[in-house]
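QUALITY CONTROL LOG
STEP: pairwise intake check
CHECKER ROLE: data steward
CRITERIA: each record must contain a sequence immediately followed by its structure tokens, with no blank fields

ENTRY 1 OF 2
RESULT FIELD BELOW
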Amino acid sequence: MGDGLAARPLGRAGLPVTPIGIGLAALGRPAYITLGRAEDLGEDRSVATMRARTWAVLDAALAAGVRYFDVARSYGRAEEFLGGWLRARDIEPGAVTVGSKWGYAYVGDWRMDADRHEVKELSAGRLRDQLAQTRALLGQHLSLYQIHSATVESGVLDDQDVLAELRELRAAGVAVGLSTTGPRQADTIDRAVEASLFDTVQATWNLLARSAGPALSRAHRAGLGVIVKEGVANGRLTSHAAPPVLASAARERGVAPDALALAAVLAQPWAGVVLSGAASVDQLRSNLSAVHAGWDAELDERLSGLDEEPEAYWAARSSLRWQ
């Protein structure tokens, strides 16, 4: 990938990252809300097969120069898979940047047909319990710990017990951040900036969901590192379901729709890391080609009509089934 994946510091914490990182939401558990998983993964989603698939993607990412890896307690066995890979490859703490999240618990029991796959609780007790679990799996590799899907409505940003725990963690040398969700992402981001505690914010931004952009720009100016998730909208901006205007523009550029969608994110001046949620080495390579896909004002204008109202976008996301 050449200079397109050169390392750079993320926000005021100065975490060394690359413009594209790897998120393991789609690899750490058998079911997820990504379109096309039957085609991408096939029928064998045993723990051993998913571990091997994860390690293959991680090996390819490391070889390509990727240096940021993102997991969460709720991503099934993602922390276990990542931690095992780090040890097997003799990767020293600090050689790559590892971020994880707390707040959701995985309850799917490795079943495709589980009634519920994850349960959310943003309490100080869960933070303490899940931090201990994360440290047991990732050890000294943990560089960043994030609230998972914080919202203003949840009250977590006003929970003094949670904030005290995060301050203690930060004082111990682990950067702290949050991820956001829902149509009011901007409000959550602005509230996090006001807290003067967080080193990073992870938010959804893509060609279908641009509303958080101004708030992310404000967070960036305030010194927070910005991590962008769902850059291909859970598969809606890939070859599985790309809108015709995106598919046409991608063909003209000689790349796949996912690469062009991620190029749009990379073009945002506030974007520190854009996560690839690749479930295979081929998908990863397509995602990584975004660094050379190019983006310009004409293309931005041409695809601006894809942007949806926040309520409509998040309603569509909520309707995606675990598959």
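ENTRY 2 OF 2
RESULT FIELD BELOW
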Amino acid sequence: MEELTYEESIRRASKTLCRFPLRSVRGIPLMEPIAQSWESIWSFCPDPSDLLISTYPKAGTTWTQEIVDLLLHNGDAEACKRATVAVRIPFLEIISPPPIPSGLDLLNKMNPPRVIKTHLPIQLVPEGFWKNKCKVIYVARNAKDNLVSYYHFDRMNHTQPDPGPWDGYIHKFMKGELAWGSWYDHVKGYWEERENRNILYLFYEDMKENPRHEVERIMKFLDLSLSDDVIGSIVELTSFKAMKDNPMTNYTFLPEEIFDHSVSPFMRKGEVGDWANHFSSEQLQLFEEDYERQMKGTNIPFRMNI
């Protein structure tokens, strides 16, 4: 039987892919193929050496994946070109029609220690990660920028529900009706458990403001020790411009039937504060009132600007 590369399998299946509806899994809306395969995802048992990178969608996931891979390879840029980021660091819960391999398919072909990506809220992360005390890196991005980035992503990503108009999308975000559910519950869930479990909780805004400091924090969390020069090189290799120009990380390896970069590039701006270009004064007031209500009683130090 012919062994297809990841990219070739996607090209062959791309014509038949569609915008999948969302289905509830334990109260969380997930794309239908994920919901249909939920039991196999939930039963995944990682090795204690595996590392999980978790984020709400569009909160710096790919950025963090590339930083981690470079740290694990001592800053060797060529080693990180061995495959696209989607193959190097599989997406745990993603399920696509054959012949596209699922995240579980890719993981089952890899030997530990593996680096694994997820967008699952903490209560849906398979229990094996906690039982085996796996390290988890969580990245949170301020709600306004996260909302804007997710909106543009859903416009260009033809496997998730059509986002509809911007004004309506804001309401979907506030109500937790987007894929992977409520941003509010997501960021709070990991925050509340960060000291009870092996979680390094990072902020997108800190990574933008002082990338070297955050790369060093990740390095220490992984029990690594790299030279100052290597750390400096990793910071350069994971700058927004470098990653946007890198075919291993910019998702141009997916055909336009799946990710239509003519609508919006996967790596669009990568800025803090771009939300100010999208909200009307009425939308901003509505959003901020709702934000205050949903985040009441939490002490997560989000910054909307830097």
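INTAKE CHECK: passed for both entries
DESCRIPTIVE NOTE, ENTRY 2: The beta strands are 22-25, 28-31, 51-55, 115-118, 135-140, 199-203.
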